[in-house]
Amino acid sequence: MLRQYELVERVLEYDPDADQAMLNRAYVYTVQKHGTQTRASGDPYFSHPVEVAGLMTDLKLDQETIATALLHDTVEDTLATIDDIEANFGPEVARLVDGVTKLSKIEQMPENERAAENLRKFLLAMSEDIRVLLVKLGDRLHNMRTLHFIKKPEKRQRIARETMDIYAPLAERVGMYEYMREMQLLAFEQIEPEAYATITKRLQQIREHDGGQVDAIALDMKHALAETGLHVEVSGREKHPYSIWRKMAERHVSFEQVTDIMAFRVICDDVADCYRALGVLHTTWQFLPGKFKDYISTPKTNGYRSLHTSLIYGKSMRVEVQIRTRDMHHTNEFGLAAHWAYKQGDRPDGAVGWLRDLIEIVDASHDAEELLEHTRMAIYQDRIFAFTPKGALFQLPKGATAVDFAFAVHTDLGAQTVGAKINGRHMPLRTQLNNGDVVEILKGQNAEPQMSWLSFVITGKARAAIRRAVRLKERAEVADIGQKLYDEIVTRVPAKIGKKALREALKRLEMEEADDLFYAIGAAKISDRTVMEALVPGSTEDMAEEDDEWLRSGKSLSIRGLTPGVGYQLAECCHPVPGDRIVGLRKQGEGVEVHAIDCHQLATGIDNDWLDLSWGRRSRGAVGRLHVTLYDRPGTLAEMAGIFAQNAVNVKSLEQTQLDHPFTTYAVDLEVQDLAHLTRILSALRASDSVAQAERA
């Protein structure tokens, strides 16, 4: 553990003007506050914040960050408060400590919700000041180094999984590859202990029998480059066990089949030498096509710059080579932290592009699982590059589609997307993009995100935005139903209801807006009796308790203008179509389910609130289901398909449900305009010699 004077000296080495008194106070404060607390290892608890502060000095971070590292657990684990921190160390340190604190008050939440809420607050704090992330990554790295002291294996697994899913990818996104690799390695040891032990043992065996092969290859490369006048540093290493295991899993191969276990790094003086070195290596050894990547001309979003290539050394050995300058190497290992200046007024923008996307996801996510899902999507890498027609470059995950690209450019553009041109050709929105594609997004004035897009978009930003738009539309349409029901409830109240009565009712119900009340009515979260009593207190006293859902006025509610699947659901049991007499079952939290009046399933909804519904004018389009029995002979299925084509109907699904020679029965789902359209199709089927029987399901 670092002693007090050692920590201060480390800071003074790179920042001679640092406030020594504040650093000394912070060190003493954390020692005093943590007192006799101990860690699972048996060490004094204050050794942890001191070691985290030491990690921050390795990154040459400013004095406020060092103080934050020393104090980051005091609010959570001691009697200290944020106000105490502010009084002793100023508002900036207090704000940083508040952002890094683990927020133990949410421990009572379920596991996934606790993780999500922690992540939500962490991301919001991080967006205000990136130093919150840097301290948090240092905190997590030191915790991982001491994870083996925790006795409960399930707790070790949980922490390791959280590190692998969230913190290691976050380290990668800010370019801190040293942190990322160590976190992955330590987490891998806990999550897959057998695989870790096996791969580690095999690597040890290779080291014992290779006779210094790594050093020999590095020396060969250095000589080849020196002969052309290039003075470079070449170092070689084995890839770490997690990297090898991931390749084995992705390629479905054994350890013996992973050929590029060795990786080499060439450090040059300047960018021109990097490209010269690449040329020398490619002419000296055969390179593998498709394995060359130029991250110097096109850096990664986290600022990573390097040339990557793979060579065949000797007869069959594949080796990976990275070529970069010294400045690039420093940035690549420590990423955003390498750019952080400790002098006031010379600080980089913490809200970098990917971080702004994460904050959008936080705002758009509906619940804990959504937030975790979308965030994991947003922070994982493995990227492709695509361009706008004007040449703007966007990085996306592999498998991203034109819709993902639209949302990456701007959330509003994604929401208005109606089509896409990829490399000048009109292509379906679900088309997956390739490296170098030029994507032009076509937009419409009244367009809006479609629920069906969720089946093919893969970026967290796109999924969060689509789900949010669909939820807002659903809320608006459920509120529309609720307003119609409210208008009906008002007619049964023994008083004239105006705006004043509604305002008073909202206060009694502890609601802010009339839309909140309408939504609660439409979603069956509040009973008619409760609404009436809120509007006119005492108005339901003479009503029997069991009359909570009394007969309505008989006036049907129109569902015109609402969207099937959003404002209401068409029941799968009876497949009602426009023209059918319909009723609705209003289920709490599930919206309205629309049934044909003669549906047998209505008996099971006896405890639900029934609504008299009508389709409204010009209601068009629904899926009707038919049961069609054909004679089992050649050509009958084709004749049925011909009838569908003649009647301009789209077949959604066709399933054989029964084979009883000489008959075959099919369940057919058809997209029809209305009841008259469906009736014409039934008449045409019954008139055919190929059809034995045709009925609605």
From TrEMBL:
The record's Gene Ontology cellular component field reads:
plasma membrane
* EC number in record: 2.7.6.5
Q: Name one Pfam family in it.
A: TGS
UniProt domain ACT: residue ranges: 625-697
The TGS domain extends over: 382-443
Sorted alphabetically, the Gene Ontology BP terms of this entry are: guanosine tetraphosphate metabolic process; nucleobase-containing small molecule interconversion; response to starvation
Tell me which Gene3D superfamilies the record gives.
3.10.20.30, 3.30.70.260, Beta Polymerase, domain 2, Hypothetical protein af1432
Enumerate the PROSITE patterns for this protein.
ACT (PS51671), HD (PS51831), TGS (PS51880)
> Catalytic activity, per the record?
GTP + ATP = guanosine 3'-diphosphate 5'-triphosphate + AMP
Protein family according to the UniProt entry: Belongs to the relA/spoT family.
| NCBIfam families, per database record | spoT_relA
What does the UniProt function comment say about this protein? In eubacteria ppGpp (guanosine 3'-diphosphate 5'-diphosphate) is a mediator of the stringent response that coordinates a variety of cellular activities in response to changes in nutritional abundance.
Please state what the protein is called: GTP pyrophosphokinase rsh
